[in-house]
Design a protein that fits this description.
The structure holds 2 protein chains of 2 kinds.
Chain A lengths: L5 H9 L1 H18 L7 H8 L5 H36 L11 H20 L15 H21 L5 H26 L4 H8 L8 H18 L3 H7 L3 H6 L4 H23 L5 H13 L6 H24 L6 H19 L2
Chain B lengths: L2 E10 L2 E11 L4 E5 L6 H8 L7 E6 L2 E2 L5 H7 E4 L11 H7 L2 H4 L7 H13 L15 H14 L4 E5 L7 H17 L3 E5 L3 H7 L2 E6 L2 E6 L1 H7 L1 H6 L3 E4 L8 E4 L2 H12 L1
Parallel strand pairs in B: 3-8, 3-9, 6-7, 7-8
Antiparallel strand pairs in B: 1-2, 1-4, 4-5, 9-10, 11-12
Helix pairs in contact in B: 3-6, 5-6
The chains are: A mainly alpha, B alpha/beta.
Chain lengths: 346, 270
């Protein structure tokens, strides 16, 4: 029990939201201006002003901007999904993978690519460019949601406790993951590159279609969160306590779970499983916010966007032509952070 | 009758934890539930709070079965505080007590003056105003327990179910809680059912007392009659005597301890 410098902490958290918003703008700006293709600042400015060379326009408007927007949206999805799951399962290590979301998405994407290649062009070797890549986000999302629903159904048969959900999620996730790896190993083809890139969580070649795919889910998810904020506060307690405070525990637990699965599954579909964002960002946000809990959601949203955008920028710059996938960057940077946070947990 | 249990029976995977439990609670009445560990006190409270589905009998509030009333409506009638509840680390005392108003504000309604007044009153009654902005994890066990009681009374329900509210508190805070229970019942007309281990505190504060043993009610009535029934010694496997302490107060139970017995035995032989 150490005395806490209350004033210092409150001051820090008060200033955190505007500071974070500034940081987000800075990250977004840097991501527009920096990249593998070395465009002069003046060219980029003129593109943003509405003219500029066709080449610069194509790089900024068709490559960098959609990629940044997709990344920021996916970051928000993962971070908010992780925050909801950590809150309602009271498990500080919860993230979308404990609901089997990424594993379900992985398996469905794997199977989809496998079948589409063999069914579309039996006998011939289809080239990677002919693969139905535009379907990957939807396929991944549906697979993730099916896995989440399976976990829910399995846990729902008895009481819907957080521990039961977690255990069912880990079990189902492990099975799905094993099947997907088995399929990949048995496939043994050069076309596996597409799959591996998706699997490592990548923003490479993400277009406006990906951003458009994600944005309705972002808007719907965040809007749906607003009216259930008090319910989320109460879901932090054990079921008997939350119920005696007047919460219809099962309904609200299920709805919050559904919301986090929807956010995570749509993001996994669009960009692949970006490891650790859903786990780390809520912890960072909690550390920044301390006891000012009303700020937790906005801070998580902003930090989620910052993390993925800056991680992607880092991967693009560090790898140059062979860029490092965002999933790898977040995992490499996330592990030290995780270790720091684990030391703080008593 | 405000709250009425009749033949309330709860079974956990074949084991009967509570058997044909009867209880009636009038407005402003304090009822103590006593009994050895595992005698069914907590089970009875949980069933009355609508958190367990009884395998037989029913608990009714104003004639409606508690487990059929929507939770938020029930929470405006009845507040329940389990044994040793846990709260998230970063939650402050005031934030916890605020949750007690959920029954009134729901998901969307903003907090009105009456809600803030109830929160302030609850904090004041439990002497927590000075600690309101402290995170719960920085508090002592006793302060944390008072914060939970504060949240339960901020709910302003007519019925308050408390599961061992004084456990883990020092004697000073125990007395404060007992006095608070008495004040709530007499000044605000709150009806209270309280599981409690301290027999003398139970007898001193309650209007009626239930003694449970292995899920069955072995006594239900006035605390003074319990003293005369001679049940305490058999149920709790102790020897002792009830000592009168004041003309209008229930007597105190004085336990005989083994080593004291030996000493008096030794004296008698001399």
């Amino acid at each position: 029990m150490t005395p806490v410098p209350e004033i210092a902490r409150n001051r820090r958290s008060l200033s955190s939201l505007p500071a974070l918003a500034g940081l987000l703008l800075l990250t977004l700006g840097l991501s527009v201006f920096l990249g593998v293709a070395d465009l002069p600042v003046s060219d980029i400015m003129s593109v943003l002003a509405g003219h500029g060379s066709p080449e610069a326009q194509s790089i900024i408007l068709d490559i960098r901007l959609p990629r940044i927007v997709t990344g920021a949206l996916a970051g928000i999805h993962f971070a908010v999904a992780g925050l909801i799951l950590q809150t309602i399962t009271r498990n500080p290590l919860a993230d979308p993978s404990i609901m089997g979301i990424s594993q379900g998405a992985t398996l469905s994407v794997t199977l989809f690519l496998l079948f589409s290649v063999f069914l579309r062009d039996p006998g011939t070797t289809a080239r990677i460019t002919e693969m139905p890549l535009e379907w990957l986000p939807a396929v991944g999302m549906v697979g993730g949601l099916i896995a989440g629903a399976a976990v829910y159904a399995l846990a729902f048969r008895r009481d819907l406790g957080p521990l039961r959900i977690t255990l069912c999620g880990i079990a189902i996730g492990a099975v799905l993951h094993a099947i997907a790896i088995g399929v990949i190993a048995g496939w043994g083809s050069a076309r596996i590159e597409v799959l591996l890139e998706w699997l490592s969580g990548s923003l490479y070649a993400r277009s406006w279609e990906h951003a458009l795919f994600l944005s309705p889910f972002t808007i719907a998810g965040l809007l749906a969160l607003l009216p259930i904020r008090r319910a989320l506060d109460l879901l932090q307690f054990e079921a008997p306590v939350a119920s005696s405070f007047g919460l219809a525990y099962r309904q609200h637990f299920s709805f919050a779970l559904f919301l986090s699965c929807g956010l995570a599954a749509s993001a996994v579909g669009a960009v692949g499983p970006i490891v650790f964002v859903g786990l780390i960002v809520p912890h960072l946000a909690r550390a920044l916010v301390a006891t000012r809990t009303p700020l937790l959601l906005p801070v998580t949203v902003t930090l989620g966007a910052i993390t993925v955008t800056s991680g992607d920028l880092l991967g693009r710059l560090a790898g140059q032509a062979d860029e490092i996938p965002i999933g790898v960057v977040t995992a490499v940077c996330g592990v030290p952070l995780l270790i720091v946070f684990l030391r703080k947990i008593p | 009758m405000l709250l009425a249990c009749s033949k309330l029976t709860v079974t956990y995977s074949g084991r009967t934890a509570l058997k044909s439990f009867d209880l009636t609670l009038k407005p402003g009445e304090v009822r103590a539930l006593i009994g050895p560990n595992g005698s069914g006190k907590s089970t009875a409270l949980q069933a009355m709070a609508g958190l367990l589905r009884p395998s037989g009998g029913h608990a009714l509030i104003d004639g409606l079965a508690v487990d059929a009333i929507p939770r938020r409506r029930l929470a405006r009638q009845l507040a329940y505080l389990p044994q040793q509840p846990t709260a998230p680390d970063e939650m402050t005392v005031a934030q916890l007590v605020r949750q007690g108003r959920f029954a009134h504000v729901g998901l969307l309604r903003s907090y009105r003056a009456e809600d803030e007044a109830a929160i302030g009153w609850a904090l004041e009654s439990t002497r927590l105003l000075a600690l309101a902005d402290r995170p719960l994890r920085e508090l002592s066990g006793g302060e944390r327990q008072r914060a939970w009681i504060s949240a339960a009374i901020a709910q302003e329900a007519r019925i308050l179910l408390l599961d061992e509210p004084t456990s883990f508190l020092d004697i000073g805070y125990q007395v404060e809680i007992i006095d608070l229970v008495h004040r709530l019942s007499r000044e605000r007309g709150v009806s209270i059912v309280m599981a409690i281990h301290d027999l003398n505190q139970a007898m001193s504060v309650c209007d009626r007392i239930s003694l449970l043993a292995k899920g069955e009610t072995v006594f239900d009535g006035d605390p003074k009659d319990l003293a005369e029934a001679g049940l305490i010694e058999t149920v709790f496997r102790v020897r002792g005597t009830f000592v009168p302490i004041a003309p209008n107060a229930p007597p105190h139970f004085d336990v005989e301890l083994a080593h004291r017995q030996m000493r008096t035995g030794g004296l008698a032989r001399q």
